[in-house]
Amino acid sequence: TRTTPGFGASPAALAFAFVSCQDYQNGFYAAYGAMARQEQDLDFVVHLGDYIYEYGPEPDAVPTRQHMGGETITLADYRQRHAQYKSDEDMREAHRLFPFIVTFDDHEVENNYADEIPEEGSETPTTRALLRRRAAGYKAYYENMPLRRSSLPQGPDMRLYRRFAWGDLAGFSILDTRQYRTDQPCGDGLKERCARALSEKQTMTGPTQERWLKDGLARSRRRWNVIGQQTMLAEYDFRATPDDQPGGESYNMDQWDGYVAARNRLLGFLDRAGVRNPVTITGDIHSSWVHDLKEDFSDGGSKTVGTEFVGTSITSSFPGVFLAPVQAALVDNPHTKYFDGSYRGYTRCDLNSERYLTTFMGVPTETADGSVVTPEAPAEPRASFVVESGNPGALQEGPTATGSSYDGPSAPFDPAKIN
After folding, report:
1. Which of 252, 341, 350, 392 could make an S-S bridge to 357, C-beta 3.0–4.6 Å?
2. 41-54: b or e for each residue (b if 16 or more CB lie within 10 Å)?
3. DSSP line for 45-96
4. In what residue span(s) does the PhoD-like phosphatase metallophosphatase domain sit (predicted)?
5. Is the pLDDT of residue 295 over 90?
6. CA 295 to CA 267: how far, in whole Å?
7. How many Å apart are CA 349 and CA 328, to the nearest integer?
8. Nearest residue to 234 (alpha-carbon basis) of 209, 259, 212, 214
C-alpha cells in the first residue's frame, strides 16, 4: 500500500481521485477498472458514500447485477450485501492498488434517513427500529471498510468524521452529514424553501462536528484545505422557468439548500478565518458540477470564498430525461460553472503549491437511465477546471466534451429518482 508523507514533510505534489454512489444493479464498475488501468500514479481514493445500496432486487437491473436477498435490515443482510459488492473484480483491483479514505452517506443504511428519523415509507418506520437497523448497517460497514479503531461503532453510533494530511501541501476534513443532521425540511424533495429551511436550528453536521471542523480549518497552515462531504454545498435553483413567467424557486431539501443557516455559518467562517484555499469535494447527485462558493448566493456579485467540485457516480443513475431541464436552469445559477449528468465515472485531482486541477473522467452510458452496460469501457476526460492558489473559484482549462447517448424526452428534475 502507500502511506502519507511524514510529519513536517513538504511534498511537491499530490494526485488522488474521488468517487461515490455505486449501485450494483445500475451497471458494471467500469470506472474502477479504468481507474486501475489508467491512473496507477494515484496516491489514494476518497469514497464519499453510497458504497452499497439497501434496496431489494430490481427487475430492470443490468443483467447479472441484480441484488441477492431482499432489502437490507439485519446485520446478516448488510454483510451479504457488502460481500456481493466486494465480489466485483474491478472494485477489488482498485482497493488493491490504492488506499481508500471512506465516509458513508445514506444508502449504507437507508435512503434519506436523518439521524434517528427514517425515510417516509420505511421498512423500519420507528426510531427504535431504525436505530437497530443503523447499528447493523454501521457494524457491517466497519467490518468491510479500511477504518481505524477510533471508528469502531458503539451500537447505532459511529465516529466517522476525521482528518488526514498530505504534509504541508493539503489537509482533508472528512465529514459525516447523515448521522447528526436534522430532518429534511419542507417535506423533503424539490421544494420552495419554507421557514424551516432557513432556521438556525437546521444542521447538517450537528454542533460538535461543526465546531471540530471549524477548529481544524482555523488552525491549518496547509496550502490546500479540502472538505470531503456528501450532498451539494452550493445553492442550486432547479427551476427552469423563464424570468417573464410565474414560477417558484425549486431547491433540493436533502442538500445544503435545506440547511441554509448552517451553510452560511460555514462559508462565512471560511472567509472570516482566512482559511487557505478551501475546496469541497462532493458526491450524492450522480452528476458532475463545478461551483464557486459564494458568501451570499442571493447576491450575484457576492465574494467567492471557496470552490466545490461535485463528482459523478460510479454506476448510480442520472436519468436522461433530467439533463435538459437541469442545463436550462444554469442561467439562474451564475455561480455554477459546469454541469454534466450524461456519464458515470470518477474525478481526478492533481495538486501542487500553485494550483488544484480537477479532471472529470467519464465512462459512457448506453441506456435512458444512464446505466453502465459495457464492463471494460474506458474512462475519458470530459472537462478540467483549475483553482489557482490564493484565488478562490474555478477556471476552465481546455475543451469540454459534449454529446450524450440520450436523445429522448425531458421531464422536470426529481431528486427521488436520483438515489
Report:
1. 350
2. ebbbbbbbbbbbbb
3. EEE-S-SS------TTSPTT-PPSSSS--SHHHHHHHHHHHHT-HHHHHHHH
4. 16-357
5. yes
6. 6
7. 28
8. 259
Beta bridge partners of 27: 372
Domains in the chain: ranges and CATH: 13-417 (3.60.21.70)
Give residue 375's identity as a one-letter amino acid code: P
DSSP assignment letter at 145 = S
pLDDT of residue 399: 86
Mean pLDDT for the stretch of residues 259-286:
98
Q: How confident is the model at residue 401 (pLDDT cuts 50, 70, 90)?
A: confident
Beta bridge mates, 288 = 340
- Three cell numbers, residue 223: 496550502
In the chain, the percentage of residues whose pLDDT exceeds 90 is 89
100-117 pLDDT, tens per residue? Answer: 999 999 999 999 999 999
Beta-bridge partners for 170: 166, 224
Taking alpha carbons only, the member of 21, 57, 51 closest to residue 137 is 51
60: Cβ contacts below 8 Å, ≥ 6 apart? none
User: Cβ(67)–Cβ(58) under 8 Å?
Assistant: yes
Distance CA 213, CA 227 (A): 9
Q: Are the C-beta atoms of residues 395 and 356 closer than 8 Å to each other? A: no
Name residues whose C-beta falls within 8 Å of residue 306's C-beta, 6 or more positions apart in sequence. Answer: 267, 270, 275, 278, 279, 280, 292, 293, 392
Closest CA to 164 of 315, 382, 359, 4: 4
Q: Is the pLDDT of residue 251 over 80?
A: yes
Region of residue 274 (phi > 0: left; psi between -120 and 50: alpha; otherwise: beta):
left
The stretch 351-371 carries a mean pLDDT of 94
